Amino acid sequence: MANLENEHIICISSVDWNPLLTRKQQVMKRLPKSNTILYVEPPITLISPFKDSRMWSKWGSWFSGIRRLNENIYLYSPPVIIPFGNKYRFINRFNQYWISLFLKNVISRLKIKPPIIWTYMPNSADLIDKLGERKLLVYDCVDEHSEYSGLINKETMTVMENDLMAECDVVFVTAQGLYDAKKDLARSIHYSPNAADISHFMKAQDPATIVPNEIASIPGSIVGFVGVIQDWIDLGLVREIAVTHPEWSVVMVGPVGVGIDVSPLRSLPNVYLLGRKDVRELPNYIKAFDVCINPFKINDLTDKVSPLKFYEYLASGKPIVSVKMPGVDSFSDVIETADNSEGFINGIERAIKEETPGKLKARLARALENSWESRVEFMSDKILEKLNS
Question: How many CB atoms are located within 10 Å of the residue 31 CB?
Answer without folding.
Answer: 21
